[in-house]
Amino acid sequence: MSPAVQIALAVTLVVVLLLLLVLRRDRPRDLVVPDRPAGDGQVEVLRLARAGRTVEAVRVLRRQTGLPLLDAKRVVDALEAGGSWSPGGPVPGRGVDDAVRAEAARLLHRGRKIQAIKVVREHTHMSLADAKRYVEGL
User: Which of 67-71, 93-97, 103-107 has the highest mean pLDDT?
Assistant: First the structure.
Protein backbone atom coordinates (compact mmCIF):
# COMPACT_ATOMS: atom_id res chain seq x y z
CA MET A 1 0.00 0.00 0.00
CA SER A 2 1.40 3.37 -0.96
CA PRO A 3 2.12 6.05 1.64
CA ALA A 4 -0.50 8.35 0.07
CA VAL A 5 -3.24 5.74 0.57
CA GLN A 6 -2.11 5.11 4.16
CA ILE A 7 -2.27 8.85 4.92
CA ALA A 8 -5.70 9.13 3.29
CA LEU A 9 -7.00 6.20 5.37
CA ALA A 10 -5.54 7.67 8.58
CA VAL A 11 -7.10 11.07 7.87
CA THR A 12 -10.46 9.44 7.08
CA LEU A 13 -10.31 7.44 10.31
CA VAL A 14 -9.54 10.56 12.36
CA VAL A 15 -12.41 12.48 10.72
CA VAL A 16 -14.87 9.64 11.37
CA LEU A 17 -13.79 9.41 15.02
CA LEU A 18 -14.17 13.15 15.49
CA LEU A 19 -17.63 13.07 13.94
CA LEU A 20 -18.66 10.23 16.24
CA LEU A 21 -17.42 12.14 19.28
CA VAL A 22 -19.28 15.29 18.25
CA LEU A 23 -22.50 13.40 17.52
CA ARG A 24 -22.27 11.46 20.78
CA ARG A 25 -21.82 14.66 22.78
CA ASP A 26 -25.09 16.08 21.40
CA ARG A 27 -27.08 13.00 22.47
CA PRO A 28 -28.77 12.89 25.85
CA ARG A 29 -26.66 11.34 28.57
CA ASP A 30 -29.27 8.90 29.80
CA LEU A 31 -30.19 6.76 26.81
CA VAL A 32 -31.39 3.77 28.77
CA VAL A 33 -35.03 3.14 29.48
CA PRO A 34 -35.85 4.73 32.84
CA ASP A 35 -36.42 2.43 35.76
CA ARG A 36 -40.00 1.65 36.60
CA PRO A 37 -41.27 3.76 39.47
CA ALA A 38 -41.21 2.14 42.85
CA GLY A 39 -44.46 1.54 44.61
CA ASP A 40 -43.64 4.15 47.23
CA GLY A 41 -43.30 7.59 45.64
CA GLN A 42 -40.99 8.93 48.35
CA VAL A 43 -38.56 6.13 47.72
CA GLU A 44 -38.64 6.92 44.00
CA VAL A 45 -37.93 10.61 44.57
CA LEU A 46 -35.09 9.76 46.94
CA ARG A 47 -33.60 7.25 44.49
CA LEU A 48 -33.72 9.74 41.61
CA ALA A 49 -32.29 12.56 43.72
CA ARG A 50 -29.40 10.49 45.03
CA ALA A 51 -28.68 9.28 41.48
CA GLY A 52 -28.31 12.90 40.37
CA ARG A 53 -31.44 12.79 38.20
CA THR A 54 -32.71 16.10 39.58
CA VAL A 55 -35.22 17.01 36.88
CA GLU A 56 -36.93 13.64 37.05
CA ALA A 57 -36.99 13.73 40.86
CA VAL A 58 -38.56 17.20 40.85
CA ARG A 59 -41.14 16.09 38.28
CA VAL A 60 -42.14 13.03 40.33
CA LEU A 61 -42.26 15.03 43.56
CA ARG A 62 -44.44 17.75 42.04
CA ARG A 63 -46.81 15.19 40.55
CA GLN A 64 -47.21 13.48 43.93
CA THR A 65 -47.43 16.50 46.23
CA GLY A 66 -48.51 19.47 44.13
CA LEU A 67 -45.58 21.50 45.45
CA PRO A 68 -44.54 24.57 43.45
CA LEU A 69 -41.47 24.12 41.27
CA LEU A 70 -39.11 26.08 43.51
CA ASP A 71 -40.16 24.21 46.65
CA ALA A 72 -39.83 20.84 44.92
CA LYS A 73 -36.37 21.81 43.65
CA ARG A 74 -35.30 22.78 47.18
CA VAL A 75 -36.49 19.44 48.54
CA VAL A 76 -34.63 17.51 45.84
CA ASP A 77 -31.47 19.57 46.44
CA ALA A 78 -31.67 18.71 50.13
CA LEU A 79 -32.10 15.02 49.31
CA GLU A 80 -29.12 15.11 46.93
CA ALA A 81 -27.02 16.61 49.72
CA GLY A 82 -27.88 13.65 51.94
CA GLY A 83 -30.66 15.29 53.90
CA SER A 84 -34.17 14.04 54.40
CA TRP A 85 -37.66 15.35 53.81
CA SER A 86 -41.01 14.64 55.35
CA PRO A 87 -44.07 15.29 53.20
CA GLY A 88 -45.90 16.69 56.19
CA GLY A 89 -44.70 20.24 55.46
CA PRO A 90 -47.00 23.06 54.51
CA VAL A 91 -48.75 22.75 51.17
CA PRO A 92 -49.94 26.04 49.63
CA GLY A 93 -53.62 26.66 50.25
CA ARG A 94 -53.94 23.92 52.84
CA GLY A 95 -53.60 24.25 56.55
CA VAL A 96 -54.72 27.87 56.75
CA ASP A 97 -56.44 28.06 60.10
CA ASP A 98 -59.64 30.01 60.63
CA ALA A 99 -57.97 32.85 62.54
CA VAL A 100 -55.47 33.52 59.72
CA ARG A 101 -58.21 33.27 57.12
CA ALA A 102 -60.40 35.70 59.08
CA GLU A 103 -57.57 38.19 59.60
CA ALA A 104 -56.60 38.07 55.91
CA ALA A 105 -60.22 38.56 54.86
CA ARG A 106 -60.60 41.50 57.26
CA LEU A 107 -57.47 43.17 55.90
CA LEU A 108 -58.49 42.49 52.31
CA HIS A 109 -61.94 44.02 52.78
CA ARG A 110 -60.33 47.12 54.29
CA GLY A 111 -58.24 47.53 51.15
CA ARG A 112 -54.99 46.30 52.74
CA LYS A 113 -54.25 43.48 50.33
CA ILE A 114 -50.47 43.56 50.84
CA GLN A 115 -50.84 43.22 54.62
CA ALA A 116 -53.28 40.34 54.12
CA ILE A 117 -50.74 38.56 51.91
CA LYS A 118 -48.05 39.12 54.55
CA VAL A 119 -50.24 37.62 57.26
CA VAL A 120 -50.93 34.53 55.16
CA ARG A 121 -47.24 34.11 54.27
CA GLU A 122 -46.10 34.47 57.89
CA HIS A 123 -48.47 31.80 59.15
CA THR A 124 -48.39 29.29 56.27
CA HIS A 125 -44.93 29.65 54.70
CA MET A 126 -46.54 29.98 51.26
CA SER A 127 -44.62 31.55 48.43
CA LEU A 128 -45.53 35.12 47.56
CA ALA A 129 -47.42 34.04 44.45
CA ASP A 130 -49.36 31.34 46.32
CA ALA A 131 -50.27 33.70 49.16
CA LYS A 132 -51.40 36.33 46.65
CA ARG A 133 -53.61 33.80 44.85
CA TYR A 134 -55.03 32.64 48.17
CA VAL A 135 -55.87 36.18 49.32
CA GLU A 136 -57.38 37.07 45.96
CA GLY A 137 -59.59 33.99 46.26
CA LEU A 138 -61.06 35.10 49.59
Answer: 103-107
